[in-house]
Amino acid sequence: MLTAxxxxxxxxxxxxxxxxxxxxxxxxxxxPDPAVxxxxxxxxxxxxxxxxxxxxxxxKYKERGRRDLAGxxxxxxxxxxxxxxLPPGAVLVPVPSSVAARRERGGxxxxxxxxxxxxxxxxxxLPALRLGRAVQDSAGLTLAERAANIDDxxxxxxxxxxxxxxxxxxxxxxxxxxxxxxxxxxxxAGWTVCGAAMVAATPPATPSTTPAxxxxxxxxxxxxxx
Length: 226
Prior knowledge:
Helix content is 32%, strand content 16%. It is α/β, with parallel strands linked by helices.
């Protein structure tokens, strides 16, 4: 509780190391480092790795009300967008938050980040996706549970102009299930999906140096897909 209050009262410090300063993330703690994200069915990139300072920034933005961090996170999303070859007239389509998440966080947290990135890249934001049914918070779910949780859950409204290009945007990509569902829903509504961009991507699990027997998994080991 005290940490959350200090975040709101004294935001003029680096969210990574706490060093006082005018920037929300100091040069020592990191800057956008975009990388390609494979396996989503469209060209995709993330602005950085979901660890260290970027992870802290996302958590404080989403869970502690630090809406002043939207611009910082938007710079990471913009860096991911710049890795993609976007056609003229493409729009950014954010993944929608659930009703419960919007209520808890005071709104859809991703839209301000998408707008900040759109301003940097000169791309409009269009919230064309919605949830067609209730979904769980994906934190703590297994790979199979994540896929089942989001399967056929998103709906998209049709583009005003046929085959208009859309870029799916999200905050974090872990297994890729949400991104793939978003791409599916947009295509089903008549959009041409030219790419996907995320603020951050979870780093892959680090394998042990000792090979495991085929078909086995060590205690605590989890598989992370892009």
